[in-house]
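Question (not urgent): is this output format expected?
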Amino acid sequence: MTVLLGTSAPLRAHHGSAPHFDPDDQVRLDGVVTEFRFVNPHAFVYFDAIDANGESVPWRCELSGATLLGRQGWTPESLVPGQRIEIVGNRARREENACGMRSITAGDGRAIGNEDTGQADIRPVADPAAAAARPPYLENGQPNISGTWVSRQGGGAGGILTNGPPERTEAGLAASDAFDVRFDNPVINCESGNIITDWYRQSHVNDIRQSDDRVAIRYGYLEMVRTVFLDAEHPENVAPSVAGHSVGRWEDDVLVVDTIGLPERALIPLSAVMMSDQARVVERIHYDEESQTLIRDYTVEDPLYLAKPYSGRNVSDIAAEPYRPFDCVNLSGENNQRPESGE
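Got this back:
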């Protein structure tokens, strides 16, 4: 049986493969599996390989996360201790005997993975009949945006940009210079990134639940939880948090969400675009009957770090699978630790 790996796109989707693994330095290794950690944000296979001197050397290589691998048929038993494998991967930049997986072949020659499977082919989208059965409004009269959703955008920066790439102020450029995605990206330490990108990152299933006075939003990626207080005002003093403080109102069938109280954070980590604690995010969320999708338009205003508002759109389908905890386990190791020299 062939099991598809699809590591290329998912590696970029988490914290980017290029800063951590060198695509110009590929390794091909024969080894015996010692352990397989089937976890998010990345699974790892540990194995013993034979070096040029005939010595057994322990290696480990990074795969996609368990959620994405699971959609491709993987299980915790897909690689088992004692199994002979051949691995092709990109060598880690700052860790000996580690790689980012490109392909893996069983000892009998069966292909267990290849780098060509794309994330777009495995999104768990519900059958159109499920959308047809959705009531357009809830019993309390609110437009119905509740349910589980899976984004059409994977790891791209911002989804569909509606007013071009972000433009930074001098202060924003200075903040970018101080940020090093190899070590400072919070997701490396299993911490949520921000309310914009975590919504669509790796197309994990998100969940929305509505009540009369609030909307609860759970992100599938790293399990961020947001509460949107309806027809309310922001308090005078908001303690900064990654989720911020959100208030919302219905304008016709669109939920307009205003969020403040956000800390300084990477807005687009791979591009080192930052947002300051002066940032304000406005989202407009609605269900589009014609396309049977949930559309989220957002605008980030930040007078300190952004020279103009940064806007984009995310489109999500009704998910065919339930919301699941992310259950993050940080196995990144030395490759994501800042060297003492600072280089």
